[in-house]
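Chapter review: from sequence to fold.
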Amino acid sequence: MSNFQSRFNYVGISISSNIELYGVGIAENCVINALEINSYIDQYCIDVMNANNFMWWNVENLFDIVNSPRRTEKLERTLRNELKGWTQDILDLKINQLSKIISKINQSQGPDIVGVCEIENSHVLELLVSKVQQQLPSRNYKIVHADTRDKRGIDVAFIYDKSKFEVEKDTGSGADFVFSHFIMKRKATRDILQVNFKTKSTGKRLVLIGNHWPSRSGGQYESEPYRVVAGETLGYFHERILDVNENDDSHNTAILAMGDFNDEPFSRSITDYALSTGSLLKVKLAQNPRFYNLMWSLMTNSVGSFYFNNTPNLLDQFMISKGIVAKKDFQVKNNSTEIIRFPEMVQGKYEVPLKFGRPSEKLNKKGFSDHFPIAVTLEENS
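The token string follows.
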């Protein structure tokens, strides 16, 4: 019996004794001992539950500098007009703005893992990590980045605190379990990035999947088939992850999918192809693996992570697998799913994101991104 259990049992006996001895003092004694129980719960549940904060952010065109030696000639030609005036000074300013927000979340402790998209390469990602580390010296952030074939050269990546998580390795080859899942599209788009993490505290597996699906440019419905393909790809690899890790407590691998899906939680690409739902019961009873979409709880708040013509869209989303729904190794902390909207990030009467932009269009040196970040806390069960 644990120390917590023995103390809990002792308090329970104390309540029973007081009821028998004092009769009329039942209510008073129960209140006193209930307070005592709560104090023990507060003290000992710190050890039972380890909270991990996750953040996702489309950081809006975090490009390397114009004429960067780290860019191919073909990509330089493609981006030539976009990158006019995108100097080292502008890049440094953009990174400084992003780092302010990242270091401010989670009560100014920063996230344990950040998923990002619209970053060009590992160089700009390392610059961002370095700046955040200056503001959060207790953190030990590392990166996982997949250099994909997107036509604009923008990728998906994760920043993680190595003191809390490690990338799982193949026991035979020693290779990291990092996978870049190709999405079939006539014009190249971002891959889906899968990283198998393990917690440092207990060694529990948590699979993260980063997404940045094809945009709505050209029209929401005209471009929808591309996101349908992306949704089918995510759905396939959801099932594949469970098959590969079949020893994880009856196919209950903990999976957290996150991303800028460029569709809403109710869009066909999300519901019919990625198989994401707002019904916990459907996730628990489904024969084919389904995700539970955490953003449904925010749908009635009339806010979005992205605004088009001042209309809110919930394009950035978190989805969890059955293993997290069933609270096996991890569970979602109550009411922890949120859209990050610090006052300095918001502008206008519609309270839209204050975007940074770029010199070739409209630059706002006080801006951040055209998307708000989102965050959620997962509690690791003992």
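Two observations follow directly from the output. The radius of gyration is 23 Å. The longest strand covers residues 50-62.
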